[in-house]
């Protein structure tokens, strides 16, 4: 990805599409990844008089409204597809690689429409066009966990709202904290019921003050209510927190917008599956029940490997730390050796098909790639079945994932024979081992001379977004709604807010100009000495290194 710019096309009433364009350095757009999301405006049906006197903001005049029969779902789906088609043609874009959408039937129809219209400009006839939003699927899985424990969560939510409803109640609660000698600098926080991450953080904060809540029940008669949490509620909350932490960490990672995510999604799906597997074998009946419910939902969306977009497997192959061996390793753990061998062959053939396509039609002529390599194969073994998930107080994505990675990296190795083609050399080379953060784009930039065609593949495939929303919106269990305050903003205000957010969120640019200042100072001093006839130019120190053109 040499450069990326974002276009936003929004419907004033229901739909929005965000287009991410991937350009070459010459500015000519070759392939793009399309990210489709939906937004709506708040309705205020209970305030007709206020709505009657409020003029709709001009900001909606700057958005394209999708027109269609609201009573005909098919017409709405076709309208979405036609709008995307129109925008792509207006921008002169002829080649679309992927379209990332929420898991909804209306989006399936829109994708099918685009398959017919963009058949010639799609990779392998659109075989890999449809990418389902992973954050949306995770939300569906987590929602099932909340359904099972709504009463427990509601009682704790009531307790938190009770003490936050007035300063007097909060002060009384603080006294209970002091009496129970709870050493915690943070306090309980309210949640937003439609955002499960805020509910997770509310529960995480509240369980630390369980004893204070119990004392408050004795100290405050108004708190003694049928909705106050009992001992079982606190136990369930602790279990729920430890379970949700894995999903919380995974959702944050796959919905990031400042780094590549396509090479992470297979990792994170593996993390979720491993978490469910570990909990299903727990001695705790509550965890077993939650895990089984989530397992059914997981298998519905991610259980059939053949239905998943193969480019997400190719993305992990293009990660030099994992490659094809990691894919086979994880598949063998969760699906058995037969599925691992079968899917491993499918993924490898897909990689070779893509390599051939890029070699013949996308990369043009390229220099031969020569390299010697000492590489290894992995003897796959299962994870330790005796891992005690319940005994870990800080169970999270890192713990669950490390149980897989350690088995993979510590396995025995056997050298392969040297490969001949570029893709053979890459696949057979030893995996890159790193400590700390790893910049996959920087690695491909440094190795694109050795792997020219694979570098082109990595540029396109690593740019695929696996989530339709950024992390701040990924936890919403309800629809994304543009509230009335934002709807009423003037267009220039909206533009100013968007630009300001972009600037504030961007990484700082570190300028290293101390050396240049020192050189400029030496030059000025030398110039002064020569002009005042104190020394000849040839007598200046480092005269042979001095270049007037540098200044």
TrEMBL record:
Transcription regulation found in the keyword field: no
hAT-like transposase RNase-H fold domain boundaries: 255-358
Keywords: DNA-binding
Species of origin: Cucumis melo var. makuwa
Protein name: Putative transposase
HAT C-terminal dimerisation domain: residues covered: 422-504
GO MF term list: DNA binding; protein dimerization activity
């Amino acid at each position: 990805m040499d450069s990326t710019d974002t276009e936003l096309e929004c419907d004033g009433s229901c739909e929005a599409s965000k287009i991410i364009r991937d350009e070459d350095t010459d500015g000519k757009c070759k392939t793009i990844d399309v990210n489709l999301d939906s937004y709506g405006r708040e309705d205020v049906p209970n305030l007709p008089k206020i709505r009657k006197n409020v003029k709709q903001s001009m900001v909606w005049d700057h958005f394209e409204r999708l027109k269609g029969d609201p009573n005909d779902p098919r017409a709405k789906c076709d309208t979405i597809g036609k709008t995307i088609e129109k925008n792509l043609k207006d921008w002169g874009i002829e080649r679309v690689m992927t379209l990332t959408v929420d898991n909804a039937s209306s989006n399936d129809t829109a994708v099918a429409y685009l398959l017919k219209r963009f058949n010639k400009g799609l990779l392998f006839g659109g075989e890999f066009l449809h990418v389902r939003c992973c954050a949306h699927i995770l939300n569906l899985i987590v929602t099932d966990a909340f359904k099972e424990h709504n009463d427990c969560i509601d009682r704790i939510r009531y307790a938190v709202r009770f003490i936050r409803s007035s300063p007097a109640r909060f002060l009384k609660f603080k006294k209970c904290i002091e009496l129970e000698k709870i050493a915690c600098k943070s306090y309980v926080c309210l949640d937003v019921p439609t955002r499960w991450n805020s509910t997770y953080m509310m529960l995480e904060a509240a369980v630390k003050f369980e004893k204070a809540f119990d004392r408050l029940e004795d100290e405050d008669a108004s708190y003694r209510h049928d909705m106050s949490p009992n001992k079982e509620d606190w136990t369930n909350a602790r279990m729920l927190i430890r379970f949700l932490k894995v999903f919380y960490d995974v959702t944050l990672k796959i919905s990031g917008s400042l780094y590549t995510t396509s090479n992470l999604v297979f990792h994170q799906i593996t993390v979720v599956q491993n978490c469910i597997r570990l909990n299903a074998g727990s001695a705790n009946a509550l965890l077993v029940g939650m895990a089984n419910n989530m397992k059914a939902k997981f298998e519905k969306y991610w259980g059939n490997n053949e239905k998943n977009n193969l480019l997400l497997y190719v993305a992990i192959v293009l990660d030099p730390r994992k490659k094809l061996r990691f894919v086979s390793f994880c598949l063998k753990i969760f699906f058995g050796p037969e599925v691992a061998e079968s899917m491993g062959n499918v993924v490898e053939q897909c990689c070779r098909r893509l390599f051939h396509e890029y070699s013949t039609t996308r990369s043009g002529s390229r220099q031969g790639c020569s390299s010697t390599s000492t590489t290894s194969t992995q003897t796959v073994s299962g994870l330790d079945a005796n891992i005690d998930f319940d005994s870990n107080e800080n169970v999270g994505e890192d713990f669950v994932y490390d149980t897989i990675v350690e088995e993979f990296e510590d396995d025995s190795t056997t050298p392969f024979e040297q490969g001949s083609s570029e893709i053979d050399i890459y696949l057979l080379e030893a995996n890159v081992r790193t400590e700390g953060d790893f910049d996959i784009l920087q690695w491909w930039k440094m190795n694109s001379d050795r792997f020219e065609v694979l570098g082109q593949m990595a540029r396109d495939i690593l740019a695929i977004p696996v989530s339709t929303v950024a992390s701040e919106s990924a936890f919403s269990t309800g629809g994304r709604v543009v509230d009335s305050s934002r709807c009423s903003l003037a267009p220039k205000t909206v533009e100013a807010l968007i630009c300001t957010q972009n600037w504030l969120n961007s990484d700082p640019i570190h300028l290293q100009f101390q050396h240049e200042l020192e050189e400029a100072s030496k030059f000025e001093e030398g110039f002064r000495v020569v002009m005042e006839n104190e020394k000849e130019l040839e007598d200046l120190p480092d005269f042979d290194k001095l270049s007037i053109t540098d200044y």
